Amino acid sequence: MANENELYDVIIIGGGPTGLFAAFYSGMRDMKTKVIESNSRLGGKVAQFYPEKYLYDIGGIPKISGEELVGQMIKQASKHDPAIVYGQYVENIVKQEDGTFTLTTNTEEKHYAKTVIIATGFGIYEAERLSSANASIYEDSQINYTINNMEKFSGKTVMVVSPNRVGVDWALALESVAQRVIVVNGNGAFQHMGDGDEERLNESSVEVKMFSQVAELIGSGQQLEAAKIVDQSTGEEEVISVDQLLVYQGISFKPAPFQHWDLRTEKNKITVDAGMSANIEGIFAAGDAVHYSNKSMLIASGYTEASTAVNSAKSYINPKASAQVYSTVVYKNE
User: Fold this and answer.
1) Could you say which residues bind FAD here (predicted)?
2) Cβ–Cβ < 8 Å for 253, 125
3) For the packed helices 17-28 and 299-317, what is the interaxial angle rounded to 10 degrees?
4) What is the rounded CA–CA span in Å between residue 98 and residue 112?
5) One domain, residues 100 and 151
6) Which residues are part of a known binding site for FAD?
7) Are residues 133 and 64 in the same domain?
8) Best exposed site among 58, 101, 194, 264 by fewest CB in 10 Å?
9) CB under 8 Å, gap of 24 or more: what pairs does 187-195 form?
10) Structural domain contains residue 243
């Protein structure tokens, strides 16, 4: 177990693609690294919003799903064994008289670092939880709020609870993976549907239950077995055997407290210089969290910004360190 008072060279706030790449590159720079992620899993917005969708703008990779990208990035980031903290939200960052930083999270735990790299994006997105009877029993097992592992749905009966296009996208993505897919929508239409979405849904094997709600989950307490749905127009009840639930009923947003951390912002983002330095010496930022002239909101941009932030942090700790390192040199014997 790591020493709770251990001083790290860098603490990275945020475990999305930018934070993960920063963790990898800081390992290349021989920096003792810790990542603090507010969620229970890594991957950020890619893991939460489009794990099943394909990305085409990652250099050298013609096509990759969000899930696959996150998996590869976690593998890459783990190369130098950074410490990773899950389920903690950084509330305060205080620079001490000796120049180090103390970070305090919502759990009142403290973390210590010589430098900080902020890769939080805009903030935290939290999915609206399923409120059906007995839902809390299966929250950590068979109720899912994103597709973070397509394989877990293979050959299963999956119920998608959503009034939104997101639910439709998930259902169609699972059609060729799951044995059976049922979509439950409490409304009479799906929100934010695009051109051709309704036609693709109608032509698929996905079953759709409109004007319906999941009233109760039924199971042993350890294993979900079925869901009772109620037709709101007729009151008719139906019990459907299910293995997994996917739920998208909306998202709440909690902005990152940049101003509370005394960071200079513009357009609600941290203003940085060419070295990704914020206005407080020793704090750097990268990815969607930052603002500068002609900033591009791309995953690829976050990678470049992350490596720049790491190099700046390394130089801040040791001004005599090389400006950057190359993987062909670091891993020449592998």
Assistant:
1) 18, 37, 45, 50, 90, 288
2) yes
3) 40
4) 12
5) no
6) 18, 37, 45, 50, 90, 288
7) no
8) 194
9) 187/163, 187/211, 190/162, 190/163, 190/164, 190/165, 191/163, 191/164, 191/165, 192/164, 192/165, 193/165, 193/168, 194/165
10) yes
Compute the distance between CA of residue 251 and CA of residue 38 in angstroms, rounded to an integer.
15
By three-state DSSP, how is residue 169 classified?
helix
Residue 230 inside a domain? The answer is yes
Which residue positions form the known binding site? 18, 37, 45, 50, 90, 288
Instruction: Give the pLDDT means over successive 10-residue stretches in the chain (334 positions).
Output: 80 98 98 96 92 93 96 97 97 97 97 98 92 94 91 96 95 96 96 92 97 96 95 95 96 93 96 98 97 95 98 98 93 85
Which whole-number Å values give the CA distances from 288 to 4, 121, 223, 297, in the listed order? 30, 4, 39, 6
CA atoms 275, 279, 280, 286: torsion sign:
negative
CA distance 247 to 326: 43
Instruction: Give, rounded to a whole angstrom, the gap between the first and last alpha carbons of the chain.
Output: 29
**How many domains is the chain built from?**
2
Q: Is 328 helix (H, G, I), strand (E, B) or coil?
A: helix
Q: Is 136 inside a domain boundary?
A: yes
Report if pTM > 0.85: yes
Q: Give, as one character, the DSSP assignment of residue 152.
A: G
CATH of the domain at 89: 3.50.50.60
Reported as a single tens digit per residue, the pLDDT across 227-251 is 999 999 999 999 999 999 999 999 9
| Number of H-type helices and E-type strands within the chain | 7, 22
Select from 230, 192, 194 the least CA-distant residue to 209.
230
φ and ψ of 67, to 5 deg: -60, -45
Last-in-domain residue among 249, 280, 301: 249
Count of Cβ atoms closer than 10 Å to residue 322 Cβ: 11
**Which residues form the domain of 136?**
129-249
Residue ending a domain, choose from 234, 249, 264: 249
In terms of domains, do 225 and 276 share one? no
